[in-house]
Each structure stands twice: as C-alpha cells, then as structure tokens.
C-alpha cells in the first residue's frame, strides 16, 4: 500500500497485516480482525510516527527492528495476543506506549522510565513480574509538562466495573501498571513525577509503606493502589476504593486495623467470640425445636384425635357466633343513639 497516512480502523479486515509503503507516517489498523505477526517488511518504515493496532488478533513477539524506528511517537498494540518479553524496542521520541491486555511477561525495561517525551504508559493486564525500576525516572513530561504535537488515540477501556471510551490526552499524564505480578516496594523516584494525574498500580503484589512523597503529586486525580500488600497509612485525599484489598493498610478512609502481629505458636486463642457464637447457636436451636414441638403437638393431636378435632371446631363456631351477636348489638345501639 502506497500512502503516507493509512487509516483503516473499525472494519472487518482479516488475514495477515499488509505490506506498507516505506513513506507511511501514520498506520491505524485498530478494531479489525488481523491475525499473525508483524511483517518483517515493516522494518523499512523509517518515517513511521504513529502505529495503532489496537483490538486485533495479532500474536508473536515484537520484532527487534522496532528499536530502529526512531520517529515512532505513538505505539498502541493493546488488546492482542503478543507474547514474549518487552525488549529494548524503545524509540527516544515515544509519547504514548500502550501494550495492555497482551501476554507479555518478564520485567519492565528501565528504559521506559527514561523517555523525556512520554506522557502515557499503559502496561496493564499482562504477566509482568519483578519490581518497579529504581533507576532515575527521566520522564520530563511528567515532571515539567510541555507537549507540542501528538496523535489523538481513543480506545475502549473497562475499569472499576465500567466500560467507557478513553481518549489519550497529553493533559492527562497516565501510568497504568495494574493487573500484573509486580512485587517489592515502591521506588521513591516514582513520586517525583509530580505532573502525573492517573496512577494505577492495583492488583499486584507490591509491599511496603506508601511514601509521604505522594503528597507532592498535587495534580493527582485518579489513584488506585487496591489489592496489593501495602501496610501503614495512606493519603486521605482519595476514597476507600483506592486502597481496598490491603489488609494491613490502616486509617481513614479505611477502617482502623491492628498492625501488631502475634506469633501463631505463642498467641493465646480468643474464646469470647466462640462462646458468643455457641450461645447464639444454642438459642436458635432451642427456639426451633420448641416451635416444632408446639406446632405438631397441637396440630398433630387435632389431626389424629377426632373428638378433639370436633370439639375444636365447635369452640371456634361458638366464639364466632358470640362475636357476631356482640357486634350486631353494639351496632343497633349506636344507630338508636
């Protein structure tokens, strides 16, 4: 295909990815059904600045020649089946990197946090492991923000039970590393990115305390540290949903908890709750047995003994007659007055 700007998104194209002119600067094939791997011929796309392959059925490892695409600014490969590790395919001009919902594994390359122009990093819902890089975070646009040109990217995003259209915007600096297997403590360098507005580290195995430096991130609008293993206290500017799933994280907006852990070998078992539960169970059992005995004692006797049954019916008939007579007498007396 010979074109500078190739946009064939939101179609039903199938099969392998096509060969494309080396002059192409924008390739948007998102929301199709392409399959297979990225062609080797794409290594000649030296002018490529935008690559959007979101929501296809592409697979395989990322080509090593990606590291030679120096003009690449936006790379959206989300919602595919790419696998392997995220190798050093880093363009120095990256502004947007979206790899979410693939099958990548291994650690996060430290080079990703050394991109001066990056303002949107999304590596969510994959199989990444290891700790967060502790190198110097040279994400200039997340410290002193300034972006001149960028390619608008929009995709469907499901988060916190809601499905909505998400538009990548340089006015909303984002880091999303959620739903992986990351572990270890949070690097202090992360909290020097004071321009970040969305930070999602939920559903990992991160530990340690939440550094007080997070208070310097004054522009933060969306924070999600839920479902990790943090302990201590947290920033109170966000609601409980930002922190749930961390049993040892205490203080507002969460409920208080006890930080002191007992040795299970020497801990004295508490019998107070057990005694209370035992009393409640005995009381409920006694009430149930009493009700059943009373009910079947009366109804069963009436059912089995004919004399008792007839006597019961006569009794209720007399009571009904007396009530009727009393009611009519009172009513006639009221009318005469």
TrEMBL record:
Q: What is its main location?
A: membrane
Instruction: Report the PANTHER family cross-referenced here.
Output: LRR RECEPTOR-LIKE KINASE (PTHR48063), LRR RECEPTOR-LIKE KINASE FAMILY PROTEIN (PTHR48063:SF52)
Is NADP set as a keyword in this record?
A: no
Name of the featured protein? Putative non-specific serine/threonine protein kinase
Q: Which Gene3D superfamilies match?
A: Ribonuclease Inhibitor
Top enzyme category = transferase
Subcellular localization: Membrane
């Amino acid at each position: 295909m010979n074109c500078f700007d190739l946009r064939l998104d939101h179609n039903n194209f199938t099969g392998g990815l096509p060969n494309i002119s080396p002059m192409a600067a924008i390739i948007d094939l998102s929301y199709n059904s392409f399959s297979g791997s990225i062609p080797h011929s794409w290594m000649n796309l030296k002018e490529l600045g935008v690559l959007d392959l979101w929501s296809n059925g592409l697979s395989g490892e990322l080509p090593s020649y990606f590291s030679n695409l120096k003009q690449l600014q936006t790379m959206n490969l989300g919602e595919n089946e790419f696998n392997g590790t995220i190798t050093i395919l880093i363009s120095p001009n990256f502004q947007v990197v979206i790899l979410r919902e693939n099958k990548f594994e291994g650690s996060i390359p430290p080079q990703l946090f050394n991109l001066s122009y990056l303002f949107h990093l999304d590596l969510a819902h994959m199989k990444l492991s290891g700790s967060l890089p502790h190198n110097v975070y040279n994400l200039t646009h997340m410290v002193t923000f300034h972006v001149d040109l960028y390619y608008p990217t929009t995709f469907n995003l499901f988060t916190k039970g809601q499905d909505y259209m998400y538009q990548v915007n340089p006015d909303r600096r984002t880091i999303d590393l959620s739903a992986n297997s990351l572990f270890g403590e949070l690097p202090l360098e992360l909290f020097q990115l004071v321009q970040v507005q969305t930070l999602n580290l939920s559903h990992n195995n991160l530990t340690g305390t939440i550094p007080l430096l997070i208070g310097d991130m004054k522009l933060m609008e969306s924070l999600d540290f839920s479902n990790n293993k943090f302990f201590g206290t947290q920033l109170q500017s966000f609601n409980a949903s930002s922190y749930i799933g961390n049993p040892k994280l205490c203080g507002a907006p969460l409920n208080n908890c006890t930080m002191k852990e007992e040795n299970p070998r020497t801990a004295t078992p508490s019998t107070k709750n057990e005694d209370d539960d035992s009393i409640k169970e005995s009381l409920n059992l006694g009430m149930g047995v009493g009700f059943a005995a009373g009910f079947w004692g009366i109804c069963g006797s009436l059912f089995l003994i004919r004399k008792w049954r007839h006597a019961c019916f006569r009794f209720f008939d007399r009571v009904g007659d007396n009530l009727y007579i009393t009611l009519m007498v009172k009513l006639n007396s009221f009318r005469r007055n």
